[in-house]
Amino acid sequence: MLAAQGLPDYGTPFVGRETDLRRIDRVVAEGATLVSLVGPGGIGKTRLAVEHARLSARDVPVGFCELTPARTAEDVSGAMVAALALAAEAGPTHADSATRVGLGLARLGRAVIVVNNVEHVAAVAPFTIGVWRTLAPDVRFVVTSREPLRLPGEAVISVAALDTEGARSAALELLHARIPPGLSLSAADEETLAELIGRLGGQPLAIELVAAHLPLVSARTMLERFDAAHLGDVAPSALEWAWGLLAPAEQEALRQMSAFAASFTRDAARAVVRLPDDTDLEPVIDSLVHKRLLVPLRQGGDRLSCVESMRERGEILLHAVADDVEAVHARHRGYYLDRCAAWAAAIHGHEGLAALSALAAEHDNLHAVLRRALEHRPRDRADVEVALRAVLALHPVLALRSPLAVQIAMLDDVVAAASAFSDVTSSAAFARLLHERGYAFRYRGRMDECTRDLERALALARDLDDRALVGLTLVTLSTVHGLRGQPAEEQSMLEEALSIAKADGLARLEGVASSALGVNAVRRGALDDALPLLDRALAIVRSVGDRRFEGIVLTQRGALELEQNRVAESVRSFEQAIAIHTEVGNRRFEATATGNLSIAHHLLGDLGAARRGYLDALGRLEHLGERRFHAYYVAYLALLDLEENRLAEARSGLNRALSALRPIADPRYEGIATAALAGERMLSGDDDEARALLDEAREVLADAGDPLILPLVEVYEGIFEVVEGSHAEGARREELLARARVRAERLTTLPADDVRLANRTLLRLLAPFAAAVAPPAQKAAPQRKTAKPMAAPKKAAPKKKAVPKKVASKKAVPKKAPKKAAPKKAAPKKAAPKKAAPKKAAPRKAAPRKAAPKKAAPKKAAPKKAAPKKAAPKKAAPKKAAPKKAAPKKAVPKKAAAPEKRTASKKGAPKRKNAP
């Protein structure tokens, strides 16, 4: 929620613009959502916009976004994100930053946002503010600019100088409101001031400066100075004249303060500004604050912001002397590089929250250092080193709060600049830079680039014998192997990292490696090994004061508790983690913990809370550009849709998830989504494609290296049984439904939360048939140990007929229904063994194409070959079954329907095969 305290604090009453406020209210009442306050610098546009927002804060949230440092459309979107701490709703993964920010603004509902000094980036307004208005129609944008944006529906209000006519004019009202208390004016002074204000044209900033100077300079003297200034050929503007009113020390201070981006502290001003003759800067700052040329920012404590018109004039004057600008910029970068590097080093300790807060506050100034270093021409080695130091100091905040595209673009620029200097690319700082970019690539889903950067960073760290960086890079690189279903390689790297941490006394690295080993144990299905590792990691990071990583370990612990079916405990862990992530500002992990909490709600049956949480997590991740976890929660939301029988939504979500997961090469979640899509296809009536997809899912999940997830396939086999049973009659119907019931009850007790989550759909499908299913204690007891063998001994012949029955019922051929009712189930049962064998990498590309024929063939040849095939399947049946089924295909009269189904199944299976 935005709040009024995000607005600048002027500390003085608002006067003289009541008519303009009423004009804004009028266009707003007429429906305007973009109000542009247009006028020259110093005319009072910002003060007017802020006052409108302050009054609006009684009814709606408000915010303030400063665009002075912005140069590009990405900068504009980044400034809005930073100002309002936005998270966007779920949207297309290819959406640009403006679209994602617009979706985030839409989540605010009714709100008023002041966007200040847009003239710097007016050219990109259609691609930023224009997009935001479309996506967030309930947000009112009040823009200050020196020119209209020329966007459709823009309400332009020209902000003119104050009225100077009469003894009660708005200009005189402002003057008297700003005159220092206790200062008395004679009638002659009043008359002189009225004449001076008239000649200044009612310019508010100039009037404020006149009032501030009255204790020091008489009204008559100021009028005489103004007349003298206008004797030349070119008369100065009111602002130029007002600049002339300032004392030399004030002018010099403002000239050098133009090096700051957006805002700065008094301490920074003392480090950067050098006044002649060692003049004390503090009284000069106080005087500029008194004259309203430096504005305190309420949110930033002692932070100050320079009035833009005066900052611009100071910048022009500063750049007029090349030696001066270089000296001032050198002091500016020296101050920020030293302090920000120290803060960046402190973020993992007890002072981490304060360090992160300080880094975030100086983001604009540090980014200005980086930009100047990269823009300098000719660029030399010193510039590259400055850029490298700046981006490494910036990265802790970028990694927590900025969109990945912004992070990666910044890191790419520095890597490219450094590549020209071999001694830089062989440094420890460059190795860290590669590690940070690899880390960002991982969350972006660019796994090949991630691996390349991390392996290069690891080799360089080993060459430099930087053991701390070696250990950290091993941990980060190990997760890539874990995602790719290579838990042994992952564990080997983590054990090496842990060994380094213990040998060198690197406590935090020990905590990080222990937590990663805990996650690895979960992937391997060794849940009992995982908890002690995560608890050890939690104790270590708490002892070193790493609040950020404490939240991460709590998130991991909650995920383990979900796997262990300790759902209530996982809720507590996730809630604690979310509180810490929010406190730290770790937006990525706040989103993932929110998504995991939604899984817990889903398992507990609170589907409304689960849906809201999934959407919330997706929105945050979408804004950050995080593709991997985003794909996960798209799949989980689709599982919820499947459970609620929203088949079209489920299919759309699962296809989107798969399109994102395949390039990432994450077999676990690719298998989960593929299996769920098989279930959706069966429920939608396309059993051929469903069976082909389930075979594919079985194969993919076998590659994931996680034994706990393998029973997921049984969930969807149970769904197949329910669908077939619903079309069957008599004993066959009872058998199929009872088998599915036994399967569902057993799966409910398994540890993997993904299996139990999918099993909810199977339980829902079984609910209407509860009365038709015999008590599981009688019918299911002997078959409880394993789902596959339970019908094998008795039902050999029927199993072969199951496929034809399925076809018959689907094709609406009633006469053959009784005949093929029993055989129906055989095909699904044989499907599992047949596809379990082809887990080989080489055949995988050919498998999909044969999946459909294999299943189509049994349907036609089942009646006569049922008995013989029952003996063979237990060993090499899958391999020899194919030839046998090739011949029957031609003998079956119903062949006309088969080609259609093959086409469908071919569409399903190849999806994955083309991914690599």
Describe the overall structure.
The protein has 916 residues and is mostly helical. The chain is built from 44 helices and 8 strands. Helix 25 runs parallel beside helix 27 (547-563). The strands form 2 sheets. It has a 5-stranded parallel sheet with strand order 2-3-4-1-5, sandwiched between helices. The two termini are 43 Å apart. Strand 3, helix 5 and strand 4 form a beta-alpha-beta unit.
Compute the number of helices. Answer: 44
Cα-based radius of gyration, to the nearest Å? 35 Å
Tell me how many strands there are.
8
| Residue-averaged pLDDT | 81
Q: Segments where pLDDT lies below 50 for 5+ residues?
A: 88-94, 774-916
DSSP strand content:
under 5%
How far is it from the N-terminal to the C-terminal residue, by CA?
Answer: 43 Å
The rough form would be described as elongated
Question: Helices and strands: which structural class?
Answer: mainly alpha
Main sheet properties? 5 strands, parallel
- Helix fraction, binned, reads 55-70%
Strand order in space, largest sheet: 2-3-4-1-5
List keywords for this structure.
single chain, 916 residues, mainly alpha, five-stranded parallel beta sheet, three-stranded antiparallel beta sheet, 44 helices, 66% helix, elongated, disordered C terminus
